[in-house]
Amino acid sequence: YPSEFLMQKITEDNQIPVHLHVSVSLQYVAGLKGRALVEFFHSNIAEVENEELRHLMWSSVLFYKTPNVEVMACVLLSTKAIYFLLDDSFIHADEHQSDFWNKENSDCENSSFHLSCCFVLKLNDLQSVNVGLFDQYFRITGHSADHIVTCLTRDSYNTHTFIQQLMAVLSLLARTPSPEPVDKDFYSEFGSKNTGKMENYELIHSSRVKFIYPNEEEIGDLAFLVAEKMDGLTNLPSLNILLYVLAFQVNHFEGSAQNTSSLQPKTLILTSSDLFLFDEDYISYPLPEFAKEPPKRDKYQLADGRRIRDLDRVLMGYQTYPQALTFVFDDVQNQDLMQNLTLDHFGE
User: Which of 66, 185, 243, 329 has its CA 20 to 30 A from that of 113?
Assistant: First the structure.
């Protein structure tokens, strides 16, 4: 151990996405190759001597306790745990975060020693994995609020690969088998359907970890929500969601020494008539079992919406992935003025 193929694969995966900035400590990790990377894992991260590194992935992550702070992380999957090697800027991002972050070493800031914060989720503590729409992200849930993490891969291939590797590693765990299910009689089987809502697709792994996938109703709910935002200007049956993608909105700051830009995470939804940007809560839904109250904000909050017929042109950057697109709309004020006046004058 480890095989040459595994080392080559981990080396290839050890690349920070070009559009995201990370701290010096994570840049150091991204510079490691092959055996040096495996040795770094065993000497600095691994908690048990005989655990094996199986997969590496770079992804933005969100924690349940700090739902507004998206941070870059190197995600390492071993035969014992999932390790999130975090950008050290996260430690100072939120003064009110929970106590499980270790702040004792903050005096290293001014030295040449670069500190990274590592969050560990033991595979034995893992309870469920929720896969987001179109495999754009997934949420890992443990036994408490401190153990809920969402990985925003923004890439169905990375999500799929990680889930496959996680299932393979979980198969190695020796867990006590679940008790045999009790045969249900006819009345209990068909009499307890008190909810009209279809449950999400669940796959219960042999390790008793649930893998939960969205069903068709989630797209239906999303289409209904989008139609609501359009003020009923369209009939719902003809509304089709053509594209759902997690993207970034680029905000330019001019006038500074050099024109800088910040990336705001957004969910882009394209229908046959409109283009929408939503602020989506990727971490709070579906509600964890221990949640006492619903989240403070809705799952989808409309940030911007424009009609396709007002789209003037689309500018495409020529850089490699990720592609930058600029949508230029005709700036028409009060575009639905006549329709609103008619409603006000002639009826409810």
Answer: 66
